[in-house]
């Protein structure tokens, strides 16, 4: 099968995000200039550079009570900071529950019953007990093609790792099995890993 996106695919559901999988989930926490906290998951998320470490996530829809993007993007543009919380498998339901299109004043931490902690380097909440969390300062927001597509790029200025996830000096993701997004309404978890040597490895 071949199709041009501009012509449509003719399938019951859009296959695009089922092709580009698995995708890590950035559980983005933010705080608005009014002090209200927000927590929402984004599956268009990834690390994009080592030095300095940088990450990105994309918001792909608008809300009636925001001038553009979602509450996460609005808060981040107001304050210039955000935190990426890594989602472990055991938190899949809580993560899903924070994805609702709630009104601006709703604190998803409180609504869903998620304990929050305070970031160290930035004025922002984080998910207490997350396997890892990345405190970020906004680098820029890029308007992507399409009416409601925005990419936020952040520089990581603080890194949290839960102690039980460190094994022999390495961050062991099998201890918490990170949740990943597939296509449609499907998800998966990383339960095993294997190592490959590169051609230039000694």
**Tally of alpha and pi helices:** 4
CATH class, named Mainly Beta
> Which radius of gyration do the C-alpha atoms yield?
18 Å
Mean pLDDT: 95
Q: Quick one: overall form? A: globular
- For CATH, the homologous superfamily is named as Electron Transport, Fmn-binding Protein, Chain A
Distance between the termini: 43 Å
The count of DSSP E runs of length 2 or more, i.e. the number of strands, is 14
Structural class: mainly beta
Beta-strand content bin: 35-45%
Protein name: Flavin reductase like domain protein
InterPro entries: Flavin_Rdtase-like_dom, Split_barrel_FMN-bd
GO molecular function: FMN binding; oxidoreductase activity, acting on the CH-NH group of donors, NAD or NADP as acceptor
Domain Flavin reductase like: 18-173
């Amino acid at each position: 099968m071949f199709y041009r996106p501009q012509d449509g695919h003719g399938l019951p559901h859009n296959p695009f995000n089922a092709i580009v999988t698995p995708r890590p989930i950035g559980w983005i926490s933010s705080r608005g200039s009014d002090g209200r906290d927000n927590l929402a998951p984004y599956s268009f998320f990834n690390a994009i550079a080592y030095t300095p470490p940088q990450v990105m996530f994309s918001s792909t829809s608008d809300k009636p009570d925001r001038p553009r993007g979602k509450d996460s993007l609005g808060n981040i543009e107001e304050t210039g900071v955000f935190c990426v919380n890594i989602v472990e498998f055991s938190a899949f339901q809580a993560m899903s529950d924070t994805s609702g299109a709630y009104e601006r004043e709703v604190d998803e931490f409180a609504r869903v019953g998620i304990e929050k902690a305070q970031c160290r380097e930035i004025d922002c909440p984080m998910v207490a007990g997350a396997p890892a969390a990345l405190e970020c300062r906004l680098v820029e927001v890029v308007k992507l093609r399409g009416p409601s597509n925005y990419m936020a790029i952040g520089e990581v200025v603080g890194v949290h790792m839960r102690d039980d996830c460190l094994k022999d000096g390495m961050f062991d993701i099998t201890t918490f099995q990170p949740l990943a997004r597939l296509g449609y309404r499907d998800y998966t978890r990383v339960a095993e890993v294997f190592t490959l040597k590169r051609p230039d490895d000694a």
